[in-house]
Each structure stands twice: as C-alpha cells, then as structure tokens.
Specification:
CATH class of the largest domain in chain A: Alpha Beta
Number of helices of chain A: 13
Distance between the termini of chain A: 25 Å
CATH superfamily of the largest domain in chain A: P-loop containing nucleotide triphosphate hydrolases
Oligomer: homodimer
Largest sheet of chain A: 7 strands, parallel
Order of helices and strands of chain A: HHEHEHEHEHEHEHEHHHHH
Number of strands of chain A: 7
Shape of chain A: elongated
Largest interface: A-B, 72 and 72 residues
Structural class of chain A: alpha/beta
Chain lengths: ~300, ~300
C-alpha cells in the first residue's frame, strides 16, 4: 500500500501533479460504493464504522475508510481518540484506513477528499466510507461525495440535535438512531420517520434504523438499508441526471484547477511585475486581476507556470 | 441608500459586474474599522451588537452591520429572530443593517462578504460590524476579514463551549464573557485569561471583558478594548506584513475571479464541444479541463465569455 499512501499524500497536499494522477486513474473508477457517515459528536459514529467494517469484511468486500479531521476549531469531537479504536482493523489488508485533515482552505479539503475517493475507487475498494464530524459547510460538501449518506443520531441529543435534524433530514439517505437502549429512542425514531414522510412521494424515503453499535446490534439492518438505497440509485439512474452530474463535476474540476494553478504560480513568484506593483500598494488587487486575465500571454504564462512539471 | 442596497445585492448574487464595481470603489476604501463578532448560539451576540451600535452612534460614528446568515443546516441559532431586535436602529440614517446569506457555495459567501465590507467602507462607514453564528469554516474565514475579532461566550456554555474555546482563542482579539451575573463567570474569565497568557510574548494579548448586554453593562469596556486593539494594530503595522497581506488578497481576488468567470461561461453554455463530450461521458473531467486550459484560444474565450458584459 506504499504507493497508494504516497499518492494520497500528494493529493492531500495538492501537489501540482494531482490532476495528472486523476486523469490517469479516472478510467478505472466507478466500481466502489461510497458511504458517508455523519452526525453530531458523541453519536457513536466511529463505533458504528468499526462494526460496518467488520460486517463488510465478513461479506468478502474490501473496505477503505477516510476519516475527515477538520482542523476547524469549531468542529469538536475526539476524532483522534476515535481513530485509535479502529486499530482493530489495522492488520487486515482488506481494510485501508486514512485520516485526512484540512490544510487551511476548505475548498482544498473538499477537492482532496473527492480525488482521494476516486483513487481508492480505482484501487479496487468495494466500499469506501467517509466519516466526518457533522458540523459546517465543509463537512456538508464532503457528504455530497457519498452515494449513500448515513446520518447517526442519539436519543438524548437534546437541543443541538433538534436544531441539526432539520438540515440533516435533507442529506440523509439512511438514519441511524444509535444507543437505542436509552430513553427517548422510540420518540426519536417516530420524529425522524415523521419528517421522512414529508419528503416528496416517488423519491427515496430514508429508513430509520435502531442500533446499539457498542453491543453490535442492528448493524445488519444498517447494511441492508445501505444496500437497498444503492439498488434504488441503480434503478432510478437516468441519462439526463448523469449528464448533469458530469457537467457539475467538470465545472468543479476546471475551476479548482484554474484556482490552484494560479495560486501555485503566484506563490512561486511568477508574474513579478504585476505582483511587485500589488505588493507596493500601487495597483489594487481588482485592477491587477483584470489586467492579468485580459492579457492573453500573461494568463497563459500564469496557468502554465502553475501546472504540473 | 437605494444605490448601496442594489450594489450589495449584485455582490451577494455574484453578478458578473462585481469585479468592476470593486475596481472602481477600491481607492475610496481603507477608512473603516471592521469588527467581527462571533461565538456560540445563545451567547447574546445580537444584544451586544445592539448595545455597541448605540454607543458608537453616541460617539458620532456611522455604523454598518453585516449579519451573516449561513444557510447551513448545522448553523443553528435564531438569527432571524435576533435581527428583529435590531429594528431599534432601523430609523437611524447613521446605521446601515444588512443580512446576507449563503447561496450554495461557501467560497461565494466569503468573497461576497469581503467585497460588501469594502463597499460599506468606501461609502464612508466608520465602523463595520460583521456578526456570525460561530460554527464552521465559512464563519472562520469570514472572521478573517475583521480588523478586530470579538469572541462572545457565556459562563454556562458547558461542554460545547469548552470544546470551542481552544479554537476561539486563536482568532480572538477581545473576549467578552456575557451574562456575567450568572454562576461560573469568574471561573470562565480566569480560564480565558490563563489561555491568553499562553500566547507568545510581545504579541497582542486579548483582554477579557465581562458584560451583561441585556442590562447595558460593560459595553464601554468592550468599546475601549476594541479601540486599544485598533491602536495596537496601527503601531505594529510594518511594510513586510502589509505586502504579505496585499499579495494574499490579490491571490484571493484573482483565483475567485478566474473561478467565477469559468463557471459563468460554462453555465451560459459556452465551450459547447468539450462540454458535450463531458456530458456524454466520452471525456473525463480531468482530461477536459487540461485540454481547455492548455489551448490558448479556448481558455481565453472561456474567461472572456464569463467576464462582465
């Protein structure tokens, strides 16, 4: 797995070769089922992920786990501690576990995650699990990458969970009420199911699964719910939506590539004349950007200088 | 204020004229002091903002307030309800209040906020207050725009506040312990002061101010702390850091401009040939992006088509 780890590190660090790597491996992608796991801190996501890994392994599937550690001060949650518990699976060659973290830019994390998922897919993983601590736009945009999003809640979540539920409803494909032995779990389930029935008819309606991940209970039902959603995705696939998805992905790839090339070229000190004038405060950033973009050779030089070697 | 409101709406909607507007008003900027107010939901930020407005008005300063309503489902907090309380100031022509919200992209919100702040600055506002509900990377990047960041906490915040404190420490220039009549406020103040003293010597050390915003107590001390920080900024300004800041701003402006132009052009259906091949699944997004970027005329056409009319 040495080569894979090195490639992931390159993508995580947004190396200039990233787009070349992706271009090469792209044809080998499209096989994996990508499962997003999110929910408030303390809901038991990592324990659930651990159980899911074991079940998928027992079914003969290879599994990769991407744990997103947002370095945002607001994220909370003992992510590192949770990771340690996953060591159960470290010696199984059918399980690949990797934590990735933000390096400043949130856009960078989303892009890196998207590309690392493609890479894990191209490497032949059957199941790819993305786990995030569910707070913030960055984590939401990462859940966008999942084929099936599992939202994990707990009965006693109180206020904050109430607040979050409304939004989590929109992104959930499967709800898990974990720690279901605790008081309030039936009410929680009923509430979630009520909300699910407000979704438009004809579309997917997320099942609500009760689990006690610590006691290994209810995990088969989660696996079944994920499988059912995958089957539904397969059957409801249509050409127009696929074309839409591809266009969206292309815009994302193109604009991030433009952005990253420009940033690299600027950091490397290319475009010295305009930059020197900006630094000295002689030229405002908007005038400088317009001049650079509108001059055919400047923009070309900039984008090429920021590209792969 | 009709013209200002219309310009803000254009920036908020990322109209293609945005960069032209900014280029024109840029020379008139640099006068305002930008104050960021953040902290967990329920800390009393809006009440505090209300009090600060009244004080600054009494000092003869014009004030603009930008309330960031992240449409993120995770944000929580009764932002709209809080807004209503600000109606105290709606009839004062020296106070301009505006809520702005995300429209999908988090990068878009950061950029719009940055530019709206510039606009409010160019319009002659002495003080610009940016208020966010303090969760997530988007809000963090918005606090980056402030000259002085005020972090508002409450004694009884419990766990979540404990978790958040570590990160809030890093961005705070002034701490406010609001609802200081409640139990635990002295301990909270002591903890915050302890953390402040872990900062490197010689730099700015955030004062911790106790307030009861509802009772209008401690507000003068907040104003004084903000003023002291402003003075510190003025005295510690140096040429190298200014050049660094300008370069950083230029990269942000340039890359967002590239991104937005490309996105607009693509949405308008330019580059039909490559896009058609991507839609049909004949060309993967990475190959398509590389071809587009490496072809001199394609990239030029794309960027011009996405530019202002």
């Amino acid at each position: 797995m040495g080569a894979l780890a090195r490639l992931i590190t390159m993508l995580e660090n947004r190396a200039s070769e990233s787009s070349v790597i992706l271009e090469r491996i792209y044809p080998a992608t499209g096989h994996a089922h990508v499962i997003g796991i999110t929910g408030p801190p303390g809901a038991g996501k990592s324990t659930l992920v651990n159980r899911l890994i074991a079940k998928y392994r027992a079914l003969g599937k290879s599994v990769a786990i991407l744990a997103i550690d947002p370095s945002s001060p607001f994220s909370g949650g003992a992510v590192l501690g949770d990771r340690v518990r996953m060591t159960d699976h470290y010696k199984d060659s059918g399980v690949y576990i990797r934590s990735i973290s933000t390096r400043g830019s949130h856009g960078g994390l989303s892009r890196a995650t998207r590309e690392i998922v493609k890479l894990l897919d191209a490497y032949g993983n059957d199941v790819i699990i993305i786990e995030t601590v569910g707070v913030g736009q960055t984590e939401l945009s990462i859940m966008d990458l999942a084929d099936t999003t599992v939202v994990v809640t707990v009965p006693e979540g109180g206020d904050s969970v109430q607040v979050m539920k409304a939004g989590l409803n929109e992104i959930a494909d499967v709800f898990v009420v974990n720690k279901a032995d605790r008081e309030g779990s039936d009410r929680m389930k009923a509430e979630l199911e009520h909300n699910v029935h407000l979704r438009p008819a004809g579309g997917w309606r997320p099942p609500v699964v009760m689990t006690q991940a610590v006691a290994d209970q209810g995990i088969d039902a989660v696996i079944a719910a994920i499988g059912k959603h995958r089957e539904w995705l397969r059957q409801s696939r249509d050409g127009a939506r696929e074309a839409e998805r591809r266009t969206h992905e292309f815009i994302e790839v193109l604009t991030s590539e433009l952005e990253e090339r420009a940033e690299r070229a600027l950091k490397a000190g290319t475009v010295p004349d305009i930059l020197a004038r900006v630094k000295a405060g002689e030229l405002n950033p908007y005038s400088a950007a317009r001049r650079l973009i509108e001059d055919r050779d400047s923009i070309r030089e900039l984008l090429q200088n920021g590209g792969p070697k």
